[in-house]
Hints:
Residues 1-25 are annotated as: Disordered. This protein is an alpha/beta fold.
Amino acid sequence: MSTPSGDTKGVESVHPYHRPHTSGTVRLQSRDGTIFTVDAWRLALASVVFRDMLETSEADSEPGLPAIDCSTPVLKEASTPIETEISSRLLDAFINMVNVSAPCVHLTSFDDLKTLLIFCEKFDCQKTFTDKIRQRLIDTAKGEEWDVPLQEMIVKWHLRYLVRYPAMTS
């Protein structure tokens, strides 16, 4: 959408699939300004940081689910989205992972995978997500230059894996 002068600054763009459709939703905004609407409970299950941002009280929750009140919009001011630093394409990939019971990663670009992994690490996402992204990143990384922070992140992940599953590495 643009104004008659062609200026798109300040004009809100809403992603066609991730539109507001129920109460109990959270709005995320990509770096390029696209708004995505996500079920709060799914986002809370996917990420410790989002869960902490959205949590109400344990008394309201079902066992095993985060304490999110889905009867009303989660944010006090529903028009204010949570800003993210990733592109709409990567935020779409993240939300698609959140919205399914068996997430998979369809990205093929080394840089996209690296950015998505850093985003998921920042928001302390489920191990299922980060493991899938890491594995895809490793599969894609043949011939790529690895910067030091990414190398350290992969080594840290691999060491945690070795500690958790020592029998599988012998």
